[in-house]
Amino acid sequence: MIDFLRGQVAHLETEYVVLDVQGVGYQVFCPNPYAFAAKGQETVTIYTHHHVREDAILLFGFPTREEQRLFRKLIEVSGIGPRVALGILSGGSPDHVVAAIHQENIGFLTKLPGIGKKTAQRMILDLKDKLEGMGGPSLFDDPSEALPAAESAYPGWPEAREGLKALGYTDAELDKVWHRMKEDVAPDEAVDSVMKKALKLLYAG
């Protein structure tokens, strides 16, 4: 079992990062590969889940232990495979996902990529009592606060913006990149898609 990798980012794609670990390039699928773009040639640590199936051996990676742990809990739910779990983590922060499960907030969960009402109900049933120490029901008093704010005609941008700020980007940088990209963003575009577009521009400079 490969639990983590430490090395330098050698290549980025929309779905994965290639991490150079002492001359060996590991392909690691991530919720948001471009989150590692700002690291440059720094040594980074990616916490991984080593997924083995009959036709493939895959690595899924995360910047924190919390995301790694939540990913492993999510794939225990019937109907949620690694790809769907990755989409969940690209669409909502671990704290918000955990809080939504504790609060039985189906409205928030069904806005995550690949999650319908029945799968959201299974997530609540299977995980509500298994996420001790990961977020909690007090994260927001009103469950609707976890949903992306309806800002102008692009409801996906406010949540994407908060995620980018958490990565260290400034308001000035984000205002500039939004001005450059907003014409290419659909009003109903998913948060993870908006965030990836912004990160591509931020990475390009």
From TrEMBL:
Domain of life from the UniProt record: Bacteria
Family membership noted in the UniProt record: Belongs to the RuvA family.
Annotated function: The RuvA-RuvB-RuvC complex processes Holliday junction (HJ) DNA during genetic recombination and DNA repair, while the RuvA-RuvB complex plays an important role in the rescue of blocked DNA replication forks via replication fork reversal (RFR). RuvA specifically binds to HJ cruciform DNA, conferring on it an open structure. The RuvB hexamer acts as an ATP-dependent pump, pulling dsDNA into and through the RuvAB complex. HJ branch migration allows RuvC to scan DNA until it finds its consensus sequence, where it cleaves and resolves the cruciform DNA.
Domain Helix-hairpin-helix DNA-binding motif class: 72-91, 107-126
Cellular compartment(s): Cytoplasm
Single GO biological process annotation from the record: DNA recombination
Name of the featured protein: Holliday junction branch migration complex subunit RuvA
Signal sequence interval, chain numbering: none
GO MF terms, alphabetically ordered: ATP binding; four-way junction DNA binding; four-way junction helicase activity; hydrolase activity
Region (Domain III): 159-205
NCBIfam families cross-referenced by the UniProt entry: ruvA (TIGR00084)
Domain notes: Has three domains with a flexible linker between the domains II and III and assumes an 'L' shape. Domain III is highly mobile and contacts RuvB.
Assembly and binders: Homotetramer. Forms an RuvA(8)-RuvB(12)-Holliday junction (HJ) complex. HJ DNA is sandwiched between 2 RuvA tetramers; dsDNA enters through RuvA and exits via RuvB. An RuvB hexamer assembles on each DNA strand where it exits the tetramer. Each RuvB hexamer is contacted by two RuvA subunits (via domain III) on 2 adjacent RuvB subunits; this complex drives branch migration. In the full resolvosome a probable DNA-RuvA(4)-RuvB(12)-RuvC(2) complex forms which resolves the HJ.
Keyword field: ATP-binding, Cytoplasm, DNA damage, DNA recombination, DNA repair, DNA-binding, Helicase, Hydrolase, Nucleotide-binding
InterPro entries: DNA_helicase_Holl-junc_RuvA_I, Hlx-hairpin-Hlx_DNA-bd_motif, NA-bd_OB-fold, RuvA, RuvA_2-like, RuvA_C, RuvA_C_sf
Keyword Iron attached: no
Cellular component, GO, one term: Holliday junction resolvase complex
SMART domains: HhH1
